[in-house]
Amino acid sequence: MTTRITTLALRVWPLIRRYGFDVLVLLGALESSLELVYGREHNKDAPTGSLWVLIPLTLLFFLPLLARRRYPFGAPAAVFIYGAAVSFLNGRVVTFPFGIFLAVLTCSFLFGMLPERRQAVSGLGIALGAAAIVTHNHPTQGAGDFLFIAILFTIVWLAGNALGAKLTQYRQAEERAERLEREREERARAAVAEERARIARELHDVVGHSVSVMTVQASGVRRLLRPEQEREREALLIVEQTGREALAEMRRLVGVLRRPEEAPALAPQPSLQHLDKLVDQVRESGLTVDLTVEGEAASLPASVDLAAYRLVQEGLTNTLKHAKAQRAEVLVRYGNGEVEVVVADDGNGMGGGDGGGHGLVGLRERIAVAGGKLDAGPRSGGGYEVRARIPMNGE
Asked: Distance between CA atoms of 222 and 245, rounded to whole angstroms?
């Protein structure tokens, strides 16, 4: 039972916070209307006149308070200005209903809560000015009544000002705590990213290089064996294949570590079958790219397929960054037991980039591990060309 009540309270409380004041405003308007209808007979200070005029005039007092969230200064100011204006029509209608009295006290409180000091003080001035006008237009009230109202308005304004200051401090403390939490999370993410980058560098520079050397050495030794050394050749071939698979997996892991948001761990590896998407992305960057595929596409080992794709990716990336080219050509040719990949442009001959990081040096190493050969350099007619031939069996 207690849990159900608590759950209900948690659901109702946000509604009360948002609409509770509006309900009180409507109740104040209802009370003022009923007081005009039933309270005039026994009170000599009650306003005279038709109820069809007095009740709408009274209800309009409360209407601006419903817009206080959007107009925190204008809404209470409108109540006081309206009250002063109505007092010229009927000097008693503003002071008679108790609901209007509570409404103007609430407006004084709202003025005090304003965070901007100038607006808060101006609001108090408006309240006192309106009180002076209403008191002057009332047939039986004088300076003593104004002094009492002025003191009351000021006390309520000071209470609102004190509460507003506390709420401002509370909001500032919350914002400061949120800012510190965001900064802490950013520092934690930066530390994680730095550690991931360090691990990626070690994997690529140390482990990757060592495995590459082992694979290339095993391939070289296998080619030096005599024809009758079949068992040794098979063992070295397994070493080569295992090394190439390990390198492909390591490069995937390095990509995940360096760009986890771009290379999810379960994402499929790109291949030559994805060249269309790669070319379309480059075209969206403003470079005209012609893609040509010659020969019958064959099923390639993962290491060969990925190496060929990365060659096209690196070549087009360097063309975009460094070559200042208008057009690039990508050629993929299958035949004679190998796949040939060419990326050429008509730029300034700088399509090779700076050769650092994951540039042509790393690409040359990747092609060599797959059993291929990479040639890159300026073209005689202008531009830059990257060309690789990789055996389809990856040997």
From this structure: 18
What are residue 370's phi and psi, to 5 degrees? -80, 5
How far CA 39 is from CA of 98, 100, 170, 213, in Å, comes to: 11, 14, 44, 102
CA atoms within 13 A on the CB side of 282: 28
Give the global pTM. Answer: 0.47
Distance CA 221, CA 224 (A): 5
Which residues, 6 or more positions from 104, have their beta carbon under 8 angstroms from its beta carbon?
79, 80, 83, 127, 130, 131, 153
What are residue 329's phi and psi, to 5 degrees? -125, 135
Q: How confident is the model at residue 340 (pLDDT cuts 50, 70, 90)?
A: very high
- pLDDT per residue as tens digits for the range 119-164: 889 988 999 998 889 888 888 888 888 899 889 999 999 998 998 8
